[in-house]
Amino acid sequence: AVTADGEAAPRGCPKAPLDPDHLYNVLFVGDSHVGKTSFLYRLHADSFNPNLTATVGLDYRVKNLVVDNKRFALRLWDSAGQERYHSMTKQFFRKADGVVLMYDVTSQYSFCDVSYWLSCIQEAAEDGVAILLLGNKTDCAAERQVPTKDGQCLAKEHQLMFYECSAASGHNVLESMVSFSRLLKIREDELKNKAEEVPKAPQKKKSCCW
Amino acid sequence: MASDGGRKQFWKRSGAKVPGSIQHVYGAQHPPFDPLLHGTLVKPGSKPPTTPVKLKKVSTFQEFESNTSDAWDLGDDDDELLAIAAENLNTEVVMETAHKVIQNHSKLQEQHKFQEEHLQEEKQEEFAQLTSVACGDNRLVKSVSEGHTASSSDNASENSSMQRSQSLPQTSTLPLMSGMGDYNTSVTSALTEREASRLDKFKQLLAGPNTDLDKLRKLSWSGIPKRIRPIAWKLLSGYLPANVDRRESTLQRKRKEYFAFVEQYYDSRNDENHQDTYRQIHIDIPRMSPEVLRLQPKVTEIFERILFIWAIRHPASGYVQGINDLVTPFFVVFVCEYIEEEEVENFDVSRLPEEVLQNIEADSYWCMSKLLDGIQDNYTFAQPGIQKKVKMLEELVSRIDEQVHRHLDQHEVKYLQFAFRWMNNLLMREVPLRCTIRLWDTYQ
């Protein structure tokens, strides 16, 4: 979330070709081999690279988008899916303005782990962090194990933004990130408003404790 | 391995060390000249986190630097090394060399991975842009991006390059192994001569009935000739005994032991309690590098077996992504033991006799196992070994290049964000395979 702290420091914002109106840190999480790195590769190069090796530690890319006439710079953090790396990944949840939680529609296993990841987010990330649930690999229709509506239900239950996509075909890759940018902007505005209300809060509390 | 407890192991040569302690990862295990320094580096029971590199006795960094200058293959003559140290590595020379390495590397990449290279380059530039802001002196970053863009432009200056850069492991157009030869055909005869004399030194050392491992280690610091490397690695890792007469029987026993493990455990890979481990290995192996290995079913089978057996025999860490990378150098080096130089390019491993392949597999397993014995806390819960090493790196950089350190800090770049993988995969993903192999000569 955009904290006061985040605003005070320029957050190392790059003098990118265009100076962004909004800069967000987005962390990608999800089980190993669901396609986090492939998704980022597609977003960056608009092609599918079948030769990507397993991510170790953290990796990152910057994606610049123009949405609703505003320039967005998304700092996309790619994480390793294997459980051993989770303690390392968790250290970066707090920095994230948004989290993309990905599962593989051809793997029930990875879908079941979504609740595990949600608990990690709850535990380690800022309250009100924007979350996008992404079901990847829609191109593998024949192997699908997780119906679209299961994803939708889960997203609704936890109030997450939801998309299905395919890094291999490009389906919904850019679209989901554009929508997510809008959500990030909304969350930022909400937080700003909240921050303005904050001074009133403690007074009220004081009056009720006796 | 309990049975190997007393033996010398990779990066872990003081018996009192806790499992997983790893000062030696940095390749500075064997600074050739200063036993004093070495002693302080591995003081048993020293406090772990903050400043394990206690250099009190070495008063200045310059002294430290001259003690540890790596000379790649320049030879092990003390005079020569001292001469290099005396040059005092001025920035210009360092940058020129670095530039050269990057150039060679990018050339190689261009030839093989056009697409990927292109992407990398963009990424580099992104990074360069990101880091160059507000940095008064961004020489390193700059040279990185230059190295990528200018790589094809100045082939002509190639030959005039100084000896130092020639001493780097040779770049080559062959995909996998030929570049690991110590010298290929393009090298001048003077170097070949030196190489011949080095080879002789190794041969002499190995000729006796008992190999002096300390001498071997010292000699290996400046690089092991390709032909010698398989046996040198096996000796230095503690897999092979120093006594010649015991070697053959040890090999036979160990190989048998490994395949007994395979027989005992491998069928359990789909059992409920092991399937997660196997599943992870099985999805990682088809996406490992280099491609030459990945595309050979025989090789992937071998890697899967090695990793699975290791994982279930080491439940404290189990299989962790990245460990697969640590099998590769051993496997490739041990394959080289059995093939002629001419055949190396595009070599099809399945052409080797089954028995030979089995030997390579068992040897790779045991040597990797020895290596991991010394760094197991890299891969246990929360990966304390890596956290510690990244902290050490941060501490080191803050002392020797405060400007870089401050710059990273200013831009809220955490060392963990970029150095985690360096430590986790022992640089396997950061430099070409032949360079990793050369580096590992000094780890053992």
Major sheet attributes of chain A? 6 strands, mixed
Number of strands of chain B: 0
> What is the CATH superfamily classification of chain A?
P-loop containing nucleotide triphosphate hydrolases
Please state roughly what percent of the residues of chain A sit in beta strands, choosing from under 5%, 5-15%, 15-25%, 25-35%, 35-45% or over 45%.
15-25%
What order do the SSEs of chain B take from the amino end to the carboxyl end, as H and E? Answer: HHHHHHHHHHHHHHHHHHHH
Helix amount of chain B: 55-70%
Largest interface: A-B, 32 and 37 residues
User: Which term fits the overall shape of chain B?
Assistant: globular
Which spans of chain B of ≥5 residues are poorly predicted at pLDDT below 50?
Answer: 1-59, 69-76, 126-188
Number of strands of chain A: 6
Terminal residue distance of chain A: 34 Å
The total count of helices of chain B amounts to 20
Tell me the number of helical segments of chain A per DSSP (H or I, 4 or more residues long).
Answer: 8
User: Could you report the average pLDDT of chain A, rounded to the nearest whole number?
Assistant: 87
Can you tell me about this structure?
The complex is a heterodimer of chains A (210) and B (444). Chain A is of the alpha/beta class. Helix content of chain A is 38%, strand content 22%. Chain A starts with a helix and ends with a helix. Chain B has 444 residues and is mainly alpha-helical. Among the domains of chain B are: 248-380 and 427-443, no CATH class; 389-424, no CATH class. Chain B is 56% helix and 0% strand. Chain B has 20 helices and no strands. Chain B starts with 34 loop residues before the first helix and ends with a helix.
Give a short overview.
Chain A has about 210 residues and is of the alpha/beta class.
Output the keywords.
heterodimer, A: 210 residues, alpha/beta, Rossmann fold, 6-stranded mixed sheet, 8 helices, 6 strands, 38% helix, 22% strand, globular, disordered N terminus, disordered C terminus, B: 444 residues, mainly alpha, GTPase activator activity (chain B), Rab-GAP_TBC_sf (chain B), Rab-GAP-TBC_dom (chain B)
